[in-house]
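Worked example 3 (structure in, sequence out).
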């Protein structure tokens, strides 16, 4: 599966994007957004990686099935005044190769405290 995105650093840096999956493999999850400093806003969660399209060769995961999209990362939390970070969007599911099935999109990441927005699920 794709690699997981790194966590955002302190001071509200955004989380890393998850890696895309190879043939038939799931995308990696997005990294969590960094926690804000005392007054700043939390970092956005990273976007989940896309699932790989279905394949039939060696190393293709479940034969013919598309890989699932990675989940979006959680938004970083604010501490005193700033806004919580937005959750990352989920990755797209991979397209299945007949007779395989399509992968499902990843879930959107949860919002950070105090007032971020949740991420959008992948398609």
């Amino acid at each position: 599966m794709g690699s997981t995105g790194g966590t955002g650093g302190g001071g509200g840096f955004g989380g890393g994007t998850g890696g895309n999956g190879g043939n038939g493999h799931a995308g990696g999850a997005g990294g969590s957004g960094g926690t804000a400093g005392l007054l700043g806003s939390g970092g956005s969660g990273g976007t989940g990686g896309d699932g790989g399209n279905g394949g039939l060769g060696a190393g293709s995961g479940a034969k013919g099935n598309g890989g699932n999209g990675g989940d979006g990362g959680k938004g970083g939390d604010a501490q005193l005044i700033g806004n919580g970070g937005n959750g990352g969007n989920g990755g797209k599911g991979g397209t299945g190769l007949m007779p395989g099935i399509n992968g499902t999109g990843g879930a959107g990441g949860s919002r950070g405290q105090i007032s971020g927005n949740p991420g959008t699920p992948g398609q």
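Notes: The chain has a mean pLDDT of 89. Residues 43-55+64-116 form one domain.
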